[in-house]
What does this fold into?
Amino acid sequence: MTDTEHDPATDEWRTYDEFAAGIDTYRLPNTDLSGTELALTLDDGSTLTLAFETDAVVWTSSAAGGGRDPYDAVSARDDVIFVNLPLTSVERAAITVVYSTTTHRALVAHSVIGEEEVEGTPRVRQTFHAAVTDAGEPTGEVPGPSRDLIGKRNIYRYSPHHLYEHVYVSSQRYAWQCLEGVQRGHGDMDLSTVWKFTDGLYLFCFREFRIAVASVWLHDLGYDLRTTGIFLGLNGAGESEHSRAGGHIYPLGSVSYPDAHPV
It folds into this structure.
């Protein structure tokens, strides 16, 4: 057996911080939002305001309070911004916002690590909301749950040492395996959520069963074939940890169902 091969039958299951190290190598560069403000109204009537400073954002939520926390922003497209708040003012939580400066549509994902493990349930919970911004009259399709990825099979290259395959099997689950990296030979089928933001642009999130980790990704399946994401989970020491991620997408193909269809 070569140094790059692992036997999944004997390999110890890797912790979140072990596989996440370096997974942002091919991520798109950060965008500076300092001096700008954004106000969002979510589909449940709640509001979220963001006031960006040089190295932090002051946020206020009518549903979850507020605070001053670090932020991470990426221009996924010329008019689409991916913003994550790896919260320090609130323990074990993250808020991720995707918004368009042209359609004034937005998505808000809230990730929270549960206090205790519940057998058969992912430790990290996530909620999702469509939203509009205060920058203008919203136009175009309202973001929402999508079945567009069902049957697709892609490879994701995050670094020279991170290569993963995804198969989107239903509206609720996806299967993954590691082709290169510390998890080589490992794989699973976990809970997932897919929302369409606009043409070719999808929010993809997963929540793992075996370890306490979840992710929020923005897949650009248009011409660019890039993805930008974040992780929230418990590291090997049992402490909450935030990680950035991103890389290139290589579509392998897709299948269509002639009769019965997945949930």
